[in-house]
Amino acid sequence: MTPVATPFFFYLLSSLALLGGILVITRKNAVHSALALILTLLALAGLYLMLYAPFVAGVQIILYAGGIMVLFLFVIMLVSIEKSQREEQFNKQWIAGLVAAVALGALFVRVFVKSKALHDLAGMHPAQLPEQSNTQEIAVYLYGNYMLAFEIASLLLLVAIIGAVVMAKKRI
Amino acid sequence: MLDYVTSYLKSNTTPGQAGNLLWAFIYIILIFLGLSVAVIAMNWLERKILAHMQVRLGPMRVGPHGLLQPIADAIKLLIKEDIMPAEADKSVFWIAPVLVVITAFTTFIVVPFGPTHAVTDMNIGVLFMLGVSSLSVLGIVMAGWASNSHYPLIGALRSSAQMVSYEIAMGLAVVAAVLMTSLHGVGLYGVAHGAVGDGTLSMIDIVKAQQDQHAWFIFKFFPLGLIAFFIFAVAMVAETNRAPFDLPEAESELTAGFHTEYSGFRWSLFFLAEYSAMIAVSSIAVTLWLGGWLRPFATWLTGETWDLVFSLFPAATFLLLALIAIVGTLRMPKHPYFRVQTIGLAGFAAVLALIGIVLLMPPVRDRIQDIYWFSLKVAGFMYLYIWYRGTFPRYRFDQLMRVGWKVLLPVGLGVLILTAIVGVLL
Amino acid sequence: MTDPSTYISHLELGERDETFLDSNELIINMGPQHPATHGVLRVILKLDGEKVLGTECVIGYLHRGVEKIAENRTYAMFNPYVDRMDYVAAVSNGLGYCEAVEKVLNVEAPPRANYIRVILAELNRLASHMLWLGTHALDIGAITPLFYTFRDREEILKIFEKYCGARLTTHAFRIGGCLYETYDGFEKDVTKFLDFVTPKIDEYEELLTTNRIWVERTRNVGKISGKECIALGVTGPVLRASGVRWDLRKAQPYAAYSEFDFEIPIGQNGDTYDRYLVRMAEMRQSLHIIRQAVGKIPEGPIMAKVPKVIKPPVGEIYHSIEAPKGELGYFIVSDGSTQPYRVRVRPPSFVNLQALDMMVRGQLVADVIAVIGTLDIVLGEVDR
Amino acid sequence: MVATLKRQFGSGISEASTYLGQNYMVVDRSLIPEILQVLRDQEQFDYCVDITAVHYLTREKPFDAIWILYSFARNERIRVKTLIAENEALPSSVSIWPTANWLEREVYDMFGIAFEGHPDLKRILLPEGWKGHPLRKDYGIIQQDQEWVQKNLGIESGQ
Predict the structure, then answer these.
(1) Were both Cys, which of C30, C271, D16, D60 would link to C43 (CB 3.0–4.6 Å)?
(2) A168: which chain C residues are within 8 Å (Cβ-Cβ)?
(3) What are residue D50's DSSP bridge partners?
(4) Fold of the domain built from segment(s) A1-83
(5) How far is CA C16 from the centre of its chain?
(6) Range from A2-6, B280-284, D126-130 that averages highest in pLDDT
(7) Complex ipTM, two decimals?
């Protein structure tokens, strides 16, 4: 399948992600922020799809947009709106934020230039996985090469789950 | 241009994979129309079937046997005053039903009605369907929150907890089925068929795997496939918020749950989304366990005669429906008051008979068969949904959670592990 | 037994569980317009998530001042008004009132009238319980039993209609007996109905009794012990389901009940499931009573000798009967005139509803619905 | 039973007899609630059927307050009656029978008889803020709180 209008979709999805990100930090209403975050996550899923990584995109939608954000909303909804409206927002220190943003931007630019130079030097191109076997490749890496790291990460998550249960429950 | 249009007809992939935008678009339109008709038909059938289960007649006034009732309802909903609560969060209130409908319809682009009858085939097909349908809970939560009222909020909380919980059991059952695609072990018919191969998440390939293995996955590794199917069948009812798991909209507790404050067109969007979500999850179940578009007894009743017999089924169904409609026409009261209705029913019978005759023609017959078997299986699930609703009381919230976490989840894990073990050993 | 005096309806009493993740307390107004409050009952719920911390009932939306009306009507004129209180069991209301006035007049209805009264009252008990079963099941989410029970209740209403011309608010009895003689074929109709309805009750039970969801939804929900019932004045099937074998038809027989042989079904746990079983058994007992009565209605007059103008002597009387919902009492004060000086109705629904708060504390919202259903209240009687 | 009670409370019980087979006794206002407590604890009248009142406009003590009690053990009823004056409060019996809660509220609502020690004494059938107590004899049958109706329902009176 040949990709259609790739640059258009790239810029569309990127701008949606950026828009979502900006909305997340500027909305006063926490629920609106959470919804904007979902927009960002979905746009990112779209970008993954464009990178021929459909599995990652699917997982992004299921886990982040469908799972974690629902739980976020679950908690946020219980907080009364009036209270959150009155609360002081933490995004007043815009000078420090600006400095950090500029620094990060500079870093990105530097990496981009440097890698471009490297590519030109060695004639390298980013690895392009065939679309059809991408999911299988991930499986091979996850359960083959990086098995140990994967299992350790799952253990870590298990500990986190137990910790959350302990914290949330008064009596066990 | 004409070449572009006709070239696809000979191809053996979906328009999405062939990169044929025009046909993809045509398929999208067809699916959209088909779904709308299905939802309307579901509306009428649900009322009729439920009524007959409950010693009632159901709608009888609008059109013969109430056939036009759903259309009348749709018109009523469209021209109703659009009410938005004063204290509601306007934008979220507006987006919520739209989001629910979009997610419900988006899932259908990977539903395989036949080997080529799908908008596209993704290599993460099942994952895509689960992911997108899991987004619909966002719409419900948004609707409940934006209404700024207590009953919808409780409905939304219930719904989010319920859908997130049952998604896990559902996912485990799906993984068990996906695992089976890679395990070419001894099928039900004792035909060893290749070794352990690549699994697949693609909807079309899953059905093809069942075709190759000569076994629907519901019968594979008996009873493992059956148990996995059962888990999915329970979880999917919970996912779609239908009885007996209809707590988010439990009418006797929360008046109408998350859509209490919705009316008119917005409400009808929720209605549309609920029914298309039901069809969507049923499609997953059919694809994963019931052999998708494959006709029944494909391995036992083989040969050209049987192929012909089974290919006549779609036409036979429509002719039977036409016959029922004709009998209904003859049994209509002879009073002049019913004249219009009698003529209407006769016309309906004629349309059904016409469709049946068209379906008899060999080219149409062959192309339509897959879609017919798929739809028939989905319709079976729809009937089950109605049947549940007529039979079961509603679960309580803690019991629902208990069933989800303490029964379905462990059983699902067990089935998954056993499937892996059995698959490797056999 | 916890001291029931602590179960008094204030929302402040409920202590909430302190959890690490605090969720908001919700105050929810259930009713007066709500599909499951059986009319215009308003229950204010204080919730922690889905857990009920306390309830308060707000009633009176259907208050019509029945007791005040009684003081301005003659004894006979007030008779139809009582039908409008518990309108699903109008015959029982009328029976209670007529017997109370007969008592204050010191007359007795003739045996034939008493038999007719028993048959109609038991039919009405069946109708009331059927309506209860249908709506209760509907509240819990089973929609089908409602239509089955209404189909069968219709047959009862048809008999009422044939007997006295009215289906719901029958005004079947008069002070001193019955106004109407049984119509031709009354006994045949009733027998036919008995044969028709007996398998139907099995049908309801088939749908619900062993249904796992039904059992889970009702067992251990809204538990109340016999002692608590007595302390709270709860009567009727609710009391019997808590293990107290007390039925006014047996304890202080009225009409012709002493002549029939029937059981008082009781439960053990006092939960919603037991109340369901008790009511189902009561329906069977009612059928049993009717079957005995219909075969041997004695010949004779149906009206006692009652003066044209009813003028009871000065005095007070309290008379109560076992209505489908519990003890229905009439306290009549006569000042010797044609109008009662005071009529007090002791409504079973009103008193039973008081137990709601105690029964639902610490349970879930869905249980409130189940408990309201299982208390079998009729708002016309609660508010009068 | 009456004899033991009379011995205990002396002249407080002014009348104890039977009318048409129903027992009742008239007691002095000062004996409430002790006599009710005694009836429940010693005489097993553990079920309070009803609490109500009667208004006699012309009497010196215009109200009869009546407790109808039932004993499961003895299978008999008794009515306890006491006469009280206008604006005279009665002690609440909620601590004896929790069922008295709503019954007393109804008596308060309909007659304006206050109950001391009642945990939540307010109107029950009529709306909060209604003027008048309808079951008093000086409250006409078509009388209503016009002001309340106009303010809360926004209609002219229905009569």
Answers:
(1) C30
(2) 19-21
(3) D68
(4) Four Helix Bundle (Hemerythrin (Met), subunit A) (1.20.120)
(5) 34
(6) B280-284
(7) 0.77
